[in-house]
Amino acid sequence: MKKSLMLAVLVVAMLAIGVSSAFADTSAVTVSAQVNAKLTLTLDKSAVDFGAVTPGTAVAPQTVNVNVKSNKDYTLGSATTGQNVLMGLGTATPPAGTISKATGPGASAGNNWLDTYSLAVPWDTAPSATALAATVTYTVVQQ
Q1: Average pLDDT, the chain
Q2: Environment class of residue 75 by beta-carbon count within 10 Å: exposed (0-12), middle (13-18) or buried (19+)?
Q3: What percent of the residues of the chain are helix, what percent strand, and what percent coil, each to the nearest 5?
């Protein structure tokens, strides 16, 4: 019995030595990337045509979808040039101040803003043989 007990203790001791002599090693890889700024401005239309219009007559508004994709916050502005006063062209005012970039699962879709174009042709605008024209230019700047 004493021999069996001694043998059992010896086996346990050898197992303990074998377990404690196991080796482990680790290594690490450092991964890095420099992310560039990215900004896109997309309009769903390149032209809006109200057709023939008459002073004092209601004209149905038309819309342009402005889409901005940015990986930083940004500002959005618009400027109108050309014969906009003669046409009585009105557009919505872009959101004021800094706009937060889109985040979360839908971030790749960007932010949409619907600009509404309206006409209220003044009575003092003379008839024209050709269409009057104005240009609305949108500008987006990352902050």
Answers
A1: 87
A2: middle
A3: 20, 30, 50
pLDDT value of residue 92: 86
CATH 1.10.10, applies to 39-142: no
Determine the Cα–Cα distance for residues 112 and 9; give it in Å rounded to an integer: 76
Closest CA relative to residue 131, chosen from 60, 89, 62, 83: 83
The 3-state DSSP class for residue 116 equals strand
SS3 97: coil
pLDDT exceeds 90 at position 2: no
Question: What are the pLDDT digits (tens) for 47-78?
Answer: 999 999 999 998 999 999 999 999 988 899 99
Q: Are 112 and 92 in contact (CB under 8 A)?
A: no
Domain ranges within the chain, ordered by starting residue:
39-142
